[in-house]
Amino acid sequence: MGAYILRRLLLIIPTLLGIMIVNFTLVQFVPGGPIEQIIAQMEGGGDVFEGIAGGGSDIEQQTGGANDRYVGARGLPPEFIEELEKEFGFDKPPVERFFDMMGNYLTLDFGESYFRSINVTDLVLEKMPVSISLGLWSTLIAYLVSIPLGIRKAVKDGSRFDTWTSGTIIVAYAIPGFLFAILLLVLFAGGSYWQIFPLRGLTSDNWDSLSLIGKVVDYFWHIALPVIALTISAFATLTLLTKNSFLDEIKKQYVMTARAKGLSEGRVLYGHVFRNAMLIVIAGFPAVFIGVFFGSSIIIETIFSLDGLGRLGFEAAVARDYPVIFGTLFIFGLMGLVVGIVSDLMYVFVDPRIDFEKREG
To answer: What region holds the ABC transmembrane type-1 domain (predicted)?
Structure first.
């Protein structure tokens, strides 16, 4: 197992490098870079993409000069544009910029945001509590509800309980998360009915003055609605996966043998069937959590006024804030690859009979 883990760790290097190369190359062809964003703001032209789509005015199209590639730059001194290029590092060839960036990343130096004047690492740490809260609690609730429900559905397969719960799950899965979030706001956050939950933020303004218990209650009071909205569609896949896994195992010979020996139904289900049936579900927990953590819905965060990694990534992409884009891509890409290894270790932990080295051989 040690050799397998070592090979997977070594594979992280070329995989992560490939991810960065592909994304860095694609960004070079995307119009509206950070310098164009700054120029558009200084010229009062609003969104830089309007100029790109419109092709510029007749005067701009007839104007020559070294800075023609910057829409709206004709009214600014060339020296100012050159200073901006030098400050952002665009005076260097793309290949040189890429290797400089990767060299800094090896020392965990992810640079500073172009527009926020804050270190990328500090920026990610600042937004992380929201994403961790949404990702962790959404995943835990989904597992705590879906696994017992899936087991019950497998035991009662074909019964009325199985039928109406399946219908409920499918309906919940079909409702878009953002639509359910708006419904929760209208009903429980003072929209048109009850003002039970707060409308925005992760904590109250008087957080520092609250007692320990008060802080815990305040925290869960704020995240209740966004977590429910984010979790509602996760029940379907996990519940049905649990049910089908149990159904496959219940029909096997060793289950019939255990029942023939006189073991109780609970002992058969949780002493014999559970480990085999739950292998793919439990072992996949790290990947599911990271998936929710990374994919923290920008819509859910916006609706509930939560400033997390979802909004950070969206705003960085719109503003062409390259240090934030590539810094977070590197961090999350590395975390995702490591979680893949952790998921494999979870398989071995749940079922020691699995040997990845023999499978590779």
So the answer is: 128-347
